[in-house]
Amino acid sequence: MIVLSIDPSLRRLGWATFNDQQGHKEMLGTSAWDFGTLSPRVAGRRERMDRVRSFFDQKRLTDVNQLVYEEPSYFSSPRGAIALKEGYLTDLGIVIGIAIGTFPKAQIWSYKPQTWKGSVPKEVTYKKWLRTFVDSSKYCDKVNHDLIDAIMLLHYHLKQVNIG
Prior knowledge:
The protein is α/β, with parallel strands linked by helices and 164 residues long. Helix content is 43%, strand content 24%.
């Protein structure tokens, strides 16, 4: 079984894949793909979403059995209010919709950020990632919060379904 975890943001798509084939469990790959800003001022929505679609096509992750994603959430802060007003939650929803459409046979699992990591600052999730994966450097070459969230969301999900 192959599990794909994604954490979309306005600039990057953090992703992690896990393989549980024939009792052999391994992390297949992790990365944060930087597709540029989703800000409506930079490019049209269709162009931005075409970039996301081409990413999934290039990765050729055709055997994904479970797709796990973090639900876009509105946070009651000035920054969150601006994101809501600018339509960013819609864009994040579209990214997730493209992922779901790319893997039509996969079981879909979604988690609210508050469910899997609580309402903690990014630094707390980062420190938990370092403690969980002692040799964290082998899982990624470029660390950022989207990548760490995708890995930790995958880790949380695997525990929930008794795989990891």
